[in-house]
Amino acid sequence: MNARPKKSFGQHFLHEKRYIDRIVSAISPRDGDTVVEIGPGEGALTLPLLAAAGRLTAIELDTDLIPALRERAAAVGALAIIQADVLTVDFTALASQLGATRLRIAGNLPYYISSPILFHCVEHAAAIQDMHFMLQKEVVDRMAAEPGSKVYGRLSVMLQLACRVVPLFDVPPGAFRPPPKVDSSVVRLVPLAAHELHDADPLRVHAIVKAAFAQRRKTLANGLKQLMDADAIRQAGVDPGARAETLAPADFVRLAKVVDTRRAAS
């Protein structure tokens, strides 16, 4: 099966066996796991994952790929294919439909839409056991970045408030057909347990993070002035003269809580 990759779908098909084997080994699927693959493409990961887990649900947007994928999987295990844009799939409802406590999600994500897919998955983190994604290396670097790093930003904070982010290994362009113009990386995301999650208003946290990183060179006092004043920033134990990239994820939570406390008291 050698389908012609479609530029409009951002398709780069993984074909090099040693990297396929490393990804499958990292996921370590077991019989009975409820595995969901995003964008199976030609089935390079689908078939070994299906062989290990016995059943698999794949979400594929490209209708041209589905018949051959279904045919190849028939002798391997029980493959269910959802023809849809992954951003429209309710993973919480899907877990219930599949009779699973939590899903194990994997995929070689289209690079042009990877961040929206990540945020969509995080919205359903309570229904997800773990996620293993192939992404542009630059994106994985941003996901795992620590405060003070040049690439630390909104993506880093929002993902780290919801998951443990573990970069695993890099994959060169030659492992794909056609080769992308960038290096890729495989990353593991493990949603935090309920007791590890913050208890601030998620929308408030998101608003603070978004405003703080909108113009990285601005101090927090300037970047957050539409949401809170310098005294409120100090009340959260944060220096109003600091810049967003120096704050740990927990600092943004404290800022959000101060905003809500002040609004409730007014």
UniProtKB/TrEMBL annotation:
It is found in: Cytoplasm. Its EC number is 2.1.1.182. GO terms for molecular function: 16S rRNA (adenine(1518)-N(6)/adenine(1519)-N(6))-dimethyltransferase activity. PROSITE patterns: RRNA_A_DIMETH (PS01131), SAM_RNA_A_N6_MT (PS51689). Pfam families: RrnaAD (PF00398). It comes from the Bacteria. Signal peptide: none annotated. Residues 19-193 form the Ribosomal RNA adenine methylase transferase N-terminal domain. Transmembrane segments: none annotated. It is an enzyme of class 2 (transferase). NCBIfam families: ksgA (TIGR00755). Belongs to the class I-like SAM-binding methyltransferase superfamily. rRNA adenine N(6)-methyltransferase family. RsmA subfamily. This is Ribosomal RNA small subunit methyltransferase A. It comes from Dyella ginsengisoli. The lineage of its organism: Bacteria, Pseudomonadati, Pseudomonadota, Gammaproteobacteria, Lysobacterales.
